[in-house]
Amino acid sequence: MNNIFKISAAAAVLLLFATGCIKEATPTDVAIKDQVSLETTIRGIPAALVQAGSTGYANQGAAWDFSLPAIHLATESMTGDLVVTGNIAYDWFTQWGTNVSLGSDYAVGALTWDNYYTWIMMANSVIGQIDATDINAIDPTEKAYLGFAYAYRAMFYFDLVRLYEAKEVTGVAKYTVPDNIKGLGVPIVLPNTTEAQAKNNPRATVDEVYDKVIFPDLEMAEDLLITYTATDKYTISLAFVYGMKARAYLERGSAFADKGDDAASVEAFGKAAEYARLAITTSGCSPLTQAQWEDPTNGFNNAKSNNAWIWGVSLPTESVSNLFCFTAHMSNENEWSDYSCGRGINSNTYNSINTYDFRRHSWLDPDRNSYDYKSCRDDADEYFANSLKDYANIKFRPAGGAYENYATGGAADHCCMRVEEMYFIEAEAVAQAGKLDEGIRLLNDFMTSYRMMNGVQYDCSAKSLTLQGFLNELMLQKRIEFWGEGIIMFDMKRLNMSVKRGYVNTNAPASYRLNVDGRAPYWNIVITRGETQNNPVIATQNNPDPSGLVDLWK
Predict the structure, then answer these.
(1) Pick from 105, 107, 114, 124: nearest CA to 12
(2) Which alpha helices (DSSP H) does 101-187 contain, by range?
(3) Burial class (CB within 10 angstroms; exposed 0-12, middle 13-18, buried 19+) of 251
(4) N or C: which end of the chain has fewer CB within 10 A?
(5) What pLDDT, in 10s, does the model give residues 503-513?
(6) What does the pLDDT average to over 373-399?
(7) What DSSP string describes 138-154?
(8) So what's the pLDDT on residue 23?
(9) Residue 184 carries which DSSP code?
(10) Considering the entire predicted model, what is its pTM?
(11) What is the full DSSP assignment across 455-474?
(12) If pLDDT is split at 50, 70 and 90, which confidence band does 37 have?
């Protein structure tokens, strides 16, 4: 797991681009660009997002090497809400969960850097092949493909800049962000970037990444897809573009607020609320019902089983590995994998969930008789009582309930955006823009209408006497809602939230008991050594190594 990463992802991307080659959906296949249709290229992107062995470290046994779902699991491991309740020897995400070996010399850095720049190359390949001088003159099919490519590229750069921006850390004295990297994002690679330019490509500022790539790409995607109707949840849609705009403007609103630019902050939050509502109405989606949330065969693994998902990716049966897939690590009902290591929820977080909130049923209560838990297993009662620890999750089910067959059970869809997130963004953005009472009303309405049982009314008013009090409560509900889905770390980093796994009667293993007052240093991801060797200017702009700088709670 600690092999040194030696090959620069950006350099590999440019080499492929310069020689006219692109990666197909099949890991070992390479095709000449002129021989590959735009359709194959654009459809290869979602296939690449779930590809096992995408960085090459799977061949060395690194069971974290399975693309975007693995990235989501890595960021979840850094939040404090995800706890290993079983054998930590099976935790292939321990480096992210314990803040060890996260520096530039370690292979785990390839998970984000390698993958995102490879995916950007694929999007660039499509963008570079279509003349967008007059979008109204583009063939309708190519117009849709181009819209997809711009939406993908915006998403990839959005994730990258949030991962690598070195935000201030005040709660860890040993960790300091150097002045020369403050405000820096990631290098920008476009279709016309030459190999020579890539070898001297400094980190663009965060503002430049948003202003030159993310927002222009989302504008292009909206213009190109304005009349397009997606046929399924696996296809980029206009609603997804609106959802991405809501995410991006929420991020910018917080950034402007941190800089003291109140006018820009209010404007950005206003746009975040606007686009969140557009995503809700345009998608036609509705939040998961209790039955859908607790579905023992389709729970959080099937885009077709509900109307909540805006966009997700599919892992076909023929591509499933019993080690290199999300379900192998996150579903605790599998008979075919021990790699889930019993992932569960922080007991403090669990105990904060209202007993009338059905989301509480996603984790096993110490009193197993507190609820009639549903399961795909024939021996559920005995298994839950004797094989799983308290607070273990049953949120993520084996696909189709196939807990005995990895090829079927591991072929789970992976959600990348669901409509509930837009309700949370809207409520926060409205409050952040100066309308706290309206933000409170929106959160109360969502929770009462969609998450509380037996007609119980949710009311956060008493906890929301100040904006910060409201944000704390909203983020608690958002952490519960999206536990395990790869969303929350970005919000915690944005809002300078704290991590607390160390406390009396904690259910976190000793080596995971990290407490940080405010933003955690390991949320500022370190750029790989391979990139600093191939693009030397980056060597002077890398983020500090956070490894081991947070003392364990005892």
Answers:
(1) 114
(2) 110-129, 140-164
(3) buried
(4) C
(5) 999 999 999 99
(6) 97
(7) S-HHHHHHHHHHHHHHH
(8) 28
(9) B
(10) 0.94
(11) TPPP--GGG-SSHHHHHHHH
(12) confident
